[in-house]
Design brief:
Layout lengths: L3 H10 L2 H9 L6 H14 L21 H6 L3 E6 L2 H32 L4 H23 L5 E6 L2 E4 L10 H8 L5 E4 L3 E5 L10 E5 L4 E4 L5 H24 L1
Antiparallel strand pairs: 1-2, 2-3, 3-4, 5-6, 6-7
Length: 246
Amino acid sequence: MISSEELEKNYAKYTDSEIINLAKNSKGLRPEAVILLTKEIEKRKLNIEVNNPKIENPFIDSEINSFVLEKYPDTVKTYPFNKNEIRNISFLLFGFGIFFLRLFYNNFYISDIRHLDYHSLYIISLFISIILTYFGIKMLKRKDENVQLFITDKEIIFKRQRDFGKYRFQDFYNRYISEKNDGIFFQEIEDIIIPDNLFRVGTLFFQTYQGEKVYVLIKCNKLDLKLLAIDLKKIIESSKNDVSRK
């Protein structure tokens, strides 16, 4: 099977008429091919839609989160977390919390029996256990209300990516636990780009008209990320067209 990278290069070599013809007869294309074809059509600004049944995707086609709607009544769309992933991470935190609690108990017991000064060690173990358990409980409590980003009638509300590299401790806290969000108005966004960067894998950024790159803290697979970029571009373009008509 031809890879997505090869398919993207092939579409770039097609003429406009070939792209239009393929869009009209695209029912047999696999989801990745539909996404790449849609991207190529948008890049060339061709007035044609891919003639393919809508790709149902729970990440892109989810219902509006009621918790977000209470806080932001003008929300028109939300992009959720994978609830199973959040639950699994919470249980993992609980497991580590129990491990450090057990470590605290063992150190306390040994120091009492052998009259050794393990005071600082078991205090640290207890502190780590409490922190991990707290984070696990907070994640589970916010499992249903937490979303990755959402759209209002004028802006995109999201969590900004700040760290980079393999271990993103601040980003982990911001993504799953923190209630703080950033926002950017549709009119500020010039383009939405998925970077080709080893340190920025699995994310996208908003290219503003002022030249700023605003990275979004997002967690999804490559296919969902491409679908998200396409979906956001359509929403922003539609909003800009509505403004220009007024």
